[in-house]
Amino acid sequence: MEDQYKDPIEPARSEQGEFLDEHELEAMLGGLVDFTNDLGRSPTTKEVDGNGVLPNHRTYVRRFKAPWNDVLRMAGIRVEYGSDPIDIVDRIVLFMELNGGVAPTSRQCTRQNNLPSRPTIESRLDLSFLQAIELAKIKFKRLHPNFETGRGW
Fold first, then answer.
1. Is residue 45 part of a domain?
2. CA distances (Å), origin 77, targets 5, 38, 74, 121
3. Nearest to 68 by CA among 45, 50, 99, 39
4. What is residue 62's predicted lDDT score, i.e. its pLDDT?
5. Are residues 66 and 15 in the same domain?
């Protein structure tokens, strides 16, 4: 029973198979934090993979035995797009509130609009993009029953 509460840093190994000590793992997380601070936001896997200094994001996932977003959380980094489906739907609803009740198109699902990408929406919600938008529209209508589409606020 105690093993399930064990620190996730303990069982990590290097690519050569030897155990990594806590200082090496903390250094990996520290590098990730520094990179995040330089960006001013949480990094994407593509940004980490292409930065040339940090290990590949898959190395973090392997060594910390955790999904990428959990590795970011271990480093104390705020995850921009949580895996919680409610968070994604809420972001779509917020977009609609800021845009006069108009739902985003797949091309508008960008970091600049504070929305996850279409593939992220589909995979996290396990719905098609159009189904996810319809779900957000239902929530929007419940939150704003007197809103008339096209008239704005």
1. yes
2. 21, 13, 7, 21
3. 45
4. 86
5. yes
Q: Are 61 and 4 in contact (CB under 8 A)?
A: no
Instruction: Identify whether residues 52 and 16 lie together within a single domain.
Output: yes
Among 148, 33, 134, CA closest to 92: 134
- Model pLDDT, residue 45: 84
- Domain shared by 59 and 114, yes or no: no
Measuring CA to CA, which residue among 138, 65, 72 is closest to residue 103? 138
- Kindly give, in sequence order, each residue whose CB lies less than 8 Å from that of residue 30, ignoring residues fewer than 6 positions away: 75
In the DSSP assignment, the letter for residue 17 is S
Contact (Cβ atoms closer than 8 angstroms) between residue 148 and residue 139: no
Q: C-alpha dihedral over 86, 90, 92, 98, to 10 degrees? A: 180
Q: Clarify whether residues 14 and 64 are in a common domain.
A: yes
* Together in a domain, 17 and 61: yes
Q: What is the pLDDT of residue 37?
A: 92
Q: Based on the structure, what is the number of domains in the chain? A: 2
Domain holding 24, by residue range, is: 8-74
Average pLDDT of adjacent 10-residue blocks, the chain of 153 residues:
41 51 86 92 86 89 82 85 73 90 93 85 90 94 78 44
Spatial distance between the Cα atoms of 64 and 140, rounded to a whole number of angstroms: 38
Residue written as token pair 């069982």: 11
